[in-house]
Specification:
By secondary structure, the chain is mainly alpha-helical. It has a single domain, classed as Four Helix Bundle (Hemerythrin (Met), subunit A), CATH 1.20.120. The protein has a two-stranded antiparallel sheet. Helix 4 runs parallel beside helix 6 and helix 8 crosses helix 9. The longest helix is centred in the first third of the chain and has 28 residues. The chain is globular and about 50 Å long. It starts with a helix and ends with a helix. It is found in: Endomembrane system. Belongs to the CDP-alcohol phosphatidyltransferase class-I family. InterPro entries: CDP-alcohol_PTase-I (IPR050324), CDP-diaglyc--ser_O-PTrfase (IPR004533), CDP-OH_P_trans (IPR000462), CDP-OH_PTrfase_TM_dom (IPR043130), CDP_ALCOHOL_P_TRANSF_CS (IPR048254).
Amino acid sequence: MNGEKIDMTESMRKGIYILPNLFTTGSLFAGFYGMVATMNGDFKSAALWILASSIFDGLDGKVARLTGTSSKFGVEYDSLADLVSFGVAPGLLMYKWALQPFGRLGWLAAFLFVVCGALRLARFNVQVNTVENKRFVGLPIPAAASMVSATVLLFYHFGWPSSYKKVAILVLIYLLAFLMVSNFRYYSFKDPELIKRQPFAFLVLAVLLLIVIAAEPVKMLFIIFLCYIASGIVGFVMTWPRRRRLEKMIHNKHHREDR
């Protein structure tokens, strides 16, 4: 622990990388302004600002990796910004938009989302050097917050009654909270192969996807985030038989060694 503090102090004396941390600050600003919009009753704008925050959050890591400016300070700053932008901001949005009529049960449900997001971030920081880079363990908190925002925007788009949103948000909170602290694996989009040469058909598909999103942005954003959330569950179910066989092999091996 003392060694880590000394390393951090020495790193701070040398200075910090400006560019990736500016993107992190942009993410934090968008999340904070989302809370301001929530308190002013402008829930649609709050949802949009949280989505904007997720864009900045995605850029800061990529900029740091591409420019070789990753640092321990940046990782810690990013985690603190994520907790505000993707934990507190969507938690407050869900409470003010749908859960306030439930009183204590409402804000406790919103707190559940925040604390599971914090646990997800803490686990990520601990496991960052021990798990594969292509997969996240548990639903990433930016994806959970983006799903909340997409749901809010979908309700405004269709003009659904307020009675529906109470049930929808309650179900969504418990689902997202569980997925964030689960062992389901989600694609991280950090695969270096993504930025290498790809078949021409990939470009055509990407352009078609952008056109569809531009035509129906609210519906498509909701569908995209829903599919991403479902991907971890589907992947877990599909790999279950293989994991069971592997566990049995390990158990049998240990049993023979004990004998």
